[in-house]
Amino acid sequence: MRNVLAIFVALIAGVMVYPMLASGQSTKETNLFSAAANDDVATIGTLLSKGVDIDARDGDGRTALLVATHGNKVDAARALIDAGADVNAKDNIHDSPYLYAGARGHLEILMMTLAHGADLKSTNRYGGTALIPAAERGHVETVRTLIEAGVDVDHVNNLGWTALLEAIILGEGGNAHRQIVDLLVKAGANVNLADRDGVTPLQHARQRGYKQIEAILVAASAR
């Protein structure tokens, strides 16, 4: 009853509450997740100085760093990464701070993960690298950053799609996706790598009436 009352009072006060989590989760570890969710750097520092496990997991397998990344809490993420948090630690659905930051376009956190050992070959639950969902969602600077970091531009996910195919098939054909297609082509993406049905990027672009993207592909000898 006291825990329920405390949560209710905190909600009334406008504070984000992180619920008690996995079996055996200590109060200090729970507080670390709450601090990460609230971008509370001071509390993070205090808890870590007391020996709290920086890579403890919640009921969904998330670390405090992944919680911070979910909310794009840059200061909390920086504090945790600087203290040694694992940027590649995956949760129960195979998201890691690195993969999630890339997929969601959280560029500042992404760059921190890249500077602290991000595994460029790691994949999400769809078998895709961070580059593929970034391309799909139109995160231009994220795509640029991942290409420069060395992510494989021709990686094929479980759906049989590359970043180039996803940018066309699941994109909107607008300026952001046009820029992404241009970036991928200039980075050496195979413009003729077809999907599982044998449909090429150029054919997908033509089917959707994406004239500017079509022009980029044709200039790169796409068929």
From TrEMBL:
The alphabetized UniProt keywords are: ANK repeat, Repeat
InterPro entries xref list: Ankyrin_rpt, Ankyrin_rpt-contain_sf
Report whether Membrane shows up as a keyword of the record. no
Keyword Repeat among record annotations: yes
Return the Pfam families for the record.
Ank_2
The segments carrying the ANK repeats are: 27-59, 60-92, 126-158, 159-196
Give TM segment ranges.
none
> What PANTHER family is this protein classified in?
ANKYRIN REPEAT CONTAINING, ANKYRIN REPEAT DOMAIN-CONTAINING PROTEIN 16
Its protein name is Uncharacterized protein
Q: Which organism is it from?
A: Pseudaminobacter salicylatoxidans
UniProt lineage: Bacteria, Pseudomonadati, Pseudomonadota, Alphaproteobacteria, Hyphomicrobiales
